[in-house]
Amino acid sequence: MSDADQILAMIRSGGVFHNVSGSNPEEAFADIVQRVPLPAGVTSTDLLNGLIERERLMTTSVGSGIAIPHPRNPVIQEEADERMYVCYLDRALNFDAMDGKPVYVLFVILSSSSQNHLRALSRLSWLFQQESFQSVLMKKPDTNELTDVIQQYYNKE
User: Fold this and answer.
1) C-alpha to C-alpha distance for 136 and 142, rounded to whole angstroms
2) Which of 23, 30, 118, 145 is deepest in the core (most CB within 10 A)?
3) For residue range 101-145, what is the model confidence (pLDDT) as tens digits?
4) Own/partner pairs for 130-136, CB < 8 Å, 24+ apart?
5) What CA–CA distance (Å, rounded) separates 1 from 120?
6) Would you give the DSSP letter of residue 39?
7) Are the C-beta atoms of residues 149 and 133 closer than 8 Å to each other?
8) What structural domains and CATH numbers belong to the chain?
């Protein structure tokens, strides 16, 4: 599976969620774990604790209003269970971003290994550097629109 296919499959398995609420990252994470379909064997409590623990170590903001929260250690065992939840916040939040910009979209990654996690981060990082992709994110596309746009970017690469 190509890196692009990995990202697309993860987003399709996870989905896009709008109007995630919270007045801080922890509250937003709590809203997310109650909304998203979790893989077998993962509880909302375990995922929430993993997201909070990782965020406390260092911000997962990557700048431009985007963060990539994830558990520090894999919470799933199988590649088939990997997923990414794209969560648009109902209002931007302070994630202590290095660029000082509040975060409005989260790409929550659940991967089965450090290697797969790093591959996903690398591909997302490339996308996030594209100013035109950042503009697309600001329009808060749904799952189909977002995956179509991502596919177009990788086809141009």
Assistant:
1) 11
2) 30
3) 999 999 999 999 999 999 999 999 999 999 999 999 999 999 999
4) 134/64, 134/65, 134/66
5) 12
6) P
7) yes
8) 3-156 (3.40.930.10)
